[in-house]
Design a protein that fits this description.
2 copies of one chain form a homodimer.
Chain A (H helix, E strand, L loop, with lengths): L1 E5 H12 L13 E7 L2 E7 L3 E8 L5 E4 L1 E6 H10 L4 E7 L2 E5 L3 E6 L18 E4 H11 L14 E7 L2 E7 L3 E8 L8 E6 H10 L5 E6 L3 E6 L2 E6 L18 E6 H12 L8 E7 L2 E8 L3 E8 L1 E2 L5 E6 H9 L5 E6 L6 E5 L5 E5 L6
Antiparallel strand pairs in A: 1-5, 1-7, 2-3, 2-6, 3-4, 4-17, 7-8, 8-9, 10-15, 11-12, 11-14, 12-13, 13-26, 15-16, 16-17, 18-22, 18-24, 19-20, 19-23, 20-21, 24-25, 25-26
Chain lengths: 370, 370
């Protein structure tokens, strides 16, 4: 392999790919980035076995290609080296498994690994992918992923469930104490209905390299999903197992509908939670007449009472307790001016949604405090 | 105690004082901030026993004073509460040891501690303090403190030695592998010569609340120093013991004087160190003809050679090894275009200084690598 390439072009692509470089050293070759240079251009690929990222730099963007070839270069070093270089032409060539990186003033020799040792991940594509704006996908991930579990005791809950049926896509995450559900319309559905669970951690990595402007293709397979955008392929494994059936969890009737300014509600909960036990974060909320009153009383520290004016659809008063952090996470997912709380009683899960937009639902299970 | 005060005024002062709130809970009352309200205004004070910070809010800046008094309020809670409040008038009053913090929509009750339990730190001042611009003090701290030791095995080296004689102030820090020395002129010296060692950690906390615009007074005592600026008193303990005599450490003659562009030198050392062992950070530097060549060869990873053009005062060539991180720390303390290296041989400590400004000297002890 022997090529000359502008530092900035190489760096931006290395930055993408490096998100998949394995930090665990179980399989040493996965601490590297696989470079394959052929007549079409340069392919860079990395994987931590859970995700695979491949960037392709077209030959048009490469200054000079002298010799095709392939090698695995240690990910941590190559990224740091290229990042700290000035933006000039960089010459990269292999001599056996040695990699020579040279500019007029610098000369690096790195020990590479035979590219044959890098696992062969076939990055297949579907003929009929689902296409959406990256911005839409960014919203889906941001509005649901926080509700997924971080505990490996029920692995399936560490993922986001994506269901596609006809022209509707539904994303759901839950850790069994709270749940987020987002539904969007898509232009064209898969021929077959889809019901998959994508690891939350994969989607968080994907978020880091998405940009709002462009579109993205979703290629869904039995045991994996490939996101294709710009010159990037991002593949994630899927989680095995059955995601809980949530249709029975979301209450269809309720006793009280409360409408509140989103920011005011967020701020009083934020301030009230300051005095809560930092492990459990439990605060009380009372709807009384036209006020929403949040309280927290912690023996050692003190107590707090915050109140805001709300609107409600009937005279019923209600009092519940919940995890303030869950409530704040849920409220952060909305961006309208007003939110609606649908409450039943002090033990029944309650729903938070936007006043005007039905596409997003947040659900929280109250905590019994007596 | 009973007063009304604007949130923004209270917050900025609480922010200063909170830097001294103790995070270790050895003495519970030191996790609090002492409030004393009298006819002159409100004094806020906190201490972690190593430093004491006192802010005084003049009565002119307080909306309403209803009742004098004093109490200790838990530092962590009061800061968070005031920070998260909107900028409105806040009412703070005590009821025994309960503290009531109220705004039209919020009501907090915190458990306070009797202000008698708070250690009484007399914050004395000298009649003839040393006066300088805060900017000058910020530079002294930034240009020397990194060279102080972080290891408690020789406590005296964890401080910065300040010597004042007539109208000259000298600041020195060393961890015995490197040394920083800064000398400045002051308008008026102490009547007696000064030779004190201020803990580096105290000065790092002081840095966080300094601002470049104003002046600062240094009040030096036997076992403490008080910095007075704006409405703030910042006291630090001094370190006991004898700081090493450095006058014999700084070489007065040398074999070779090398002049280099500061940024170029920093960049090649930064890039060369990428391949060094991350614990020891050792790289080689060779001065050969009109080039400075840095190299590093790490068996597992690979090797690097970087070169830049330099000027030197005689044809001697020299080759030394050193800790690249120490060299980068030292170079970062300069802000001119060019630096000068004064080298003797591969074992003798070498000096780095600015081409035109003699006030700052950095010294590094080479590492033997054979």
């Amino acid at each position: 392999m022997n090529l000359k390439i502008k530092r900035d072009i190489l760096l931006s692509n290395l930055n993408y790919v490096s998100k998949a470089v394995s930090s665990k050293n179980v399989i040493p070759v996965l601490a590297g980035i696989k470079w394959v240079l052929n007549e079409k251009g340069l392919s860079l690929e990395a994987s931590d076995e859970s995700i695979i990222i491949n960037c392709f730099i077209d030959k048009e963007k490469i200054e000079e290609i002298k010799e095709y070839g392939s090698v695995v270069i240690p990910g941590r070093y190559i990224l740091d080296i290229i990042r700290k270089m000035p933006n000039e032409l960089i010459n990269i060539e292999t001599d056996g498994l040695k990699i020579l990186i040279t500019t007029p003033s610098s000369e690096y020799t790195l020990n590479g690994i035979d590219s044959q040792e890098f696992p062969d991940y076939p990055l297949e594509l579907n003929k009929k992918p689902i296409i959406m704006n990256q911005k839409v996908l960014i919203n889906i991930i941001n509005q649901t992923s926080f509700a997924a579990s971080t505990q490996e005791s029920r692995p399936i809950l560490t993922g986001i469930n994506i269901k596609i049926k006809e022209k509707s896509l539904e994303a759901v995450a839950t850790d069994s104490y709270r749940l987020s559900k987002k539904v969007i319309d898509i232009n064209e559905g898969n021929d077959d209905p889809v019901d998959i669970v994508i690891p939350k951690v994969s989607l968080i990595e994907l978020l880091k390299i998405l940009n709002e402007e462009e579109i993205i293709e979703l290629h869904i397979f039995n045991n994996k999903i490939v996101f294709k955008f710009e010159n990037i392929l991002f593949q994630s494994r899927l989680l095995n197992g059955t995601f809980p059936n949530i249709s029975t969890l979301i209450p269809t009737d309720y006793t009280l509908e409360v409408t509140s300014k989103l920011n005011d509600l967020y701020n009083v909960i934020d301030r009230t939670s300051l005095l809560s036990d930092s492990d459990k974060n439990i605060i009380q909320m009372e709807i009384k007449n036209n006020e929403l009153i949040t309280t927290c009383d912690t023996l050692q520290v003190g107590k707090v009472e915050e109140r805001i004016i709300i609107e409600k659809n009937n005279p019923v008063d209600i009092k519940i307790s919940f995890n303030a952090k869950f409530m704040m996470d849920a409220l952060k997912s909305f961006n309208g001016d007003n939110v609606v709380l649908l409450l039943t009683n002090e033990t029944k899960q309650f729903v938070i949604k936007d006043k005007t937009d039905e596409s997003l639902i947040q659900l929280i299970v109250p905590v019994r405090t007596y």
